[in-house]
Amino acid sequence: VFFEFDDYSTRPAYTALVERHGRYLGGNANVAVKVEGNADERGSTEYNLALGQKRAEVVLKALKIYGARDNQVEAVGWGEERPVAPGHDGAAWAQD
To answer: Measured between alpha carbons, how far is 52 from 82 in angstroms, rounded to an integer?
Structure first.
């Protein structure tokens, strides 16, 4: 799930994806996942950690709406500390 710059609301384009994963988790109680939130390097470290955490939590909440249980999902915000794409340009920032 990707987010707009400086935002942590999920886009409608990802609803079906999150729904499928939530229903899968709901039907498979023995499966657990960690939802990781990232941010790019723009902004302070503290801000980016908080943004990454909020992004992870919004996806976690959506998974739970579709059936995932509390003990199956964990939200972790990495901020800029663990970027998905380690570059320093628009292409990399779009993935973080």
So the answer is: 10
Q: Which amino acid is at 57?
A: E
Tallying the residues shown for the chain, one arrives at 96
Which single residue is written with the structure tokens 């996806």? 59
Contact by Cβ (8 Å): 82, 34? no
Instruction: Give the confidence band of 30 by pLDDT, cuts at 50, 70, 90.
Output: very high
Alpha-carbon span 20 to 59, nearest angstrom: 12
Confirm if 91 and 48 have CB atoms less than 8 A apart.
no
How many whole angstroms separate alpha carbon 84 and alpha carbon 24?
25
Q: Name the pTM for this structure.
A: 0.89
Query: Helices then strands (H, E): number in the chain?
Result: 3, 2
